[in-house]
Amino acid sequence: MHVLVTGGAGFIGSNFIFHMLNKYPNYRIVCLDLLTYAGNLSTLKSVMNKENFRFVKGDIADREFIFNLFNKEKFDVVVNFAAESHVDRSILNPGLFLRTNIIGTQVLLDVCKEYNVARFHQVSTDEVYGDLPLDRPDLFFTEDTPINTSSPYSASKASADLLVQAYHRTFKLPVTISRCSNNYGPYHFPEKLIPLIISRALNDEALPVYGTGENVRDWLYVEDHCTAIDEIIHNGKIGEVYNVGGHNEKTNLEVVKTILKELEKPESLISFVNDRVGHDMRYAIDPTKIKNELNWEPTTKFDDGIKQTVKWYLDNKSWWERIINGDYQNYYQEMYGDR
Ligand code: NAD
Ligand code: DAU
Fold first, then answer.
1. Which terminus of the chain has a lower count of CB atoms within 10 Å, N or C?
2. What is the pLDDT of residues 97-121, one digit of tens each?
3. Is residue 131 in contact with ligand 2, taking CB distance under 6 Å?
4. Is the shortest distance between the CB of 85 and ligand 1 below 6 Å?
5. Which ligand is in closest contact with the Cα of 214?
6. Which residue range is the domain that position 166 belongs to?
């Protein structure tokens, strides 16, 4: 099998490439990534010399480039991770999110249609469902929950999902979609809550918690997301959406305090800052469909996953220190300076 993984130099895409190369040594994997601020070639260092792996630098929204690539190489499966993925950045610059997440997906759909790719898998997010109220813990997102987006990021991901479904209905393109909850684990870019808190706590810096810290996210260890996508591309039903999550709901404050405890750092580092505008209150996935149809279940509990993640950041300081010492400093100032 010949698999194209877009966005594979980012957090989840790189973990997916490691998972696939490890589990399917006979597959050929090509990673296509633009290496934006979020893409990091050093993440892929350990697989760069493998004979069945190749890295290609390129933009999913560059139609000519993408059609040329498919003209030269025949892919059986395309897994689209490539995206602008940070909600806060989408508030600063919505246009970039529309270009990459919507137009980029459309270019990939067109090329898959032209070259009869056997499966296009779209890596989507639970954020397309909007949010749930804190006082209704009985409510969960199912695949039938209406799309109801809050941020330019989630609106762009929802638009891409609608296009994927339209290409299936109109052109019979063989597609699947996964909508996953918040991931955490190795190679998570330090602008996102968990790696941001770990890296700043290690440097004894103030830890920005938005609003009151009561917002709830449903955390999934990244390897569990990778096994879910693996299962969907091999055994999922064409045209279907699968929610991916594992009932690991935590408030942001709980997450931050767990990390501080693990690092033996004081809670006095916590600094409540102005809330994210349009901030979603609670995400919570109902994973019944993927469990019943594909027998998928997460294997890592949050208590174990967060310990492994903290250890990874302690053992791989050079990976994230290079990031936070670069352009990231300007980003941090712009995002948090006046908060
Ligand atoms: P990330 O920001 O870490 O990585 C995104 C990757 O895409 C980067 O390597 C970047 O260089 C690449 N990229 C960006 N624009 C590109 C373009 N135009 N062409 C080619 N490559 C481009 O993101 P992530 O957290 O790994 O998320 C991956 C996917 O999973 C995204 O589609 C995201 O919406 C989705 N998702 C993320 C989470 C999460 O918790 N992180 C949860 C559910 C779904
Ligand atoms: O639910 C899936 C989504 O999870 C993915 O689709 C997105 O790509 C991914 O970035 C993530 O979105 P969130 O907005 O939930 O993740 P983030 O890590 O940015 O924030 C998690 C929570 O922590 C959220 O409630 C905002 C809060 N937060 C975040 C940052 C960066 C803070 O309190 N302080 C911070 O500094």
1. C
2. 999 999 999 999 999 999 999 999 9
3. no
4. yes
5. 2
6. 2-185+221-247+281-301
